[in-house]
Amino acid sequence: MKPRYNCLTCPGYCCSHSRIAVSDYDIARLAKHFKLSVEEAKRRFTYRYQTKEVDEQILRHQRDHVYKSICRFFDTDERRCTVYEARPNVCRRYPYGNQCGYYDFLKFERAHQDDEDFIPSA
To answer: 45 lies in a domain?
Structure first.
C-alpha cells in the first residue's frame, strides 16, 4: 500500500520523539557506519533509560530550533537524517502504516495558513 505522506515536507516530527529506543542490532549498524566498536557507539550515541517497567537504550538528542530537542543524527538545518542508510529499525518502520498523523496535521495547517512552509510551533 502506497504511503499517504511525504517526509520531505515534514520538519522531523518522528525524530523529535523523546525516547527513540534502539536495539543492539541498531547500535551495531551505527557502529559499522561510523567505523567504531559497538561499545564506543553505544557510549557516544545512546543512554540507558530504566524504570520499573522499561529498560531501553535510547538515542541521544541535540537542541533544535523547531522542537525542543531532536535525534542527534538529525541535521537541524537541512531537516534530514544524517545516517539514513544506517538508521535504526524503529525509524525504518515509522509511521507503522500508510498514514502519518503529523503529516496530515501539517498539510491541514499549511493549507489553512496558505503557507506551504508553515511549521506549527509548540
So the answer is: yes
